[in-house]
Amino acid sequence: MRLSELPRRTPAVVQSVDDATPGDPVARRLRELGFVAGEAVQVIAYGPFGMDPLVAQVGFTRFALRRSEAARIGVEIASASVTRIAPATQGDETAPPSAKRTA
């Protein structure tokens, strides 16, 4: 499956980035940005009417990609054994555990 085909908010794992030509600068840049084998990825949003750009998240970083760029990235839908980071609840994002208030 290609990243450009992945449904929104579906956890996946990068399998490969395809080079269109030897030394392909776009494929090289995608790898530099973190689209490497084994990395967790998901599509956050698609552009208007499902067109360009799409927003993909690798780790905690989001990137806007053209569909043609996303089509170079091979992904596999993540299995249930892949753990996800739970989102912080309101007020927890800045307070250390010892400083949390209890009601």
UniProtKB/TrEMBL annotation:
| Xref: Pfam families | FeoA
Q: Which residues form the Ferrous iron transporter FeoA-like domain?
A: 1-77
Entry's transmembrane regions: none
Among SMART domains, the record links this protein to: FeoA (SM00899)
Q: Which superkingdom does the taxonomy of this entry point to?
A: Bacteria
Keyword list, A-Z? Iron
Tell me the GO molecular function terms. transition metal ion binding
Matching entries from PANTHER family are given as:
FE(2+) TRANSPORT PROTEIN A
Question: What protein does this entry describe?
Answer: Ferrous iron transport protein A
State the species of origin: Cupriavidus taiwanensis
**What taxonomic classification does the UniProt entry list for its organism?**
Bacteria, Pseudomonadati, Pseudomonadota, Betaproteobacteria, Burkholderiales
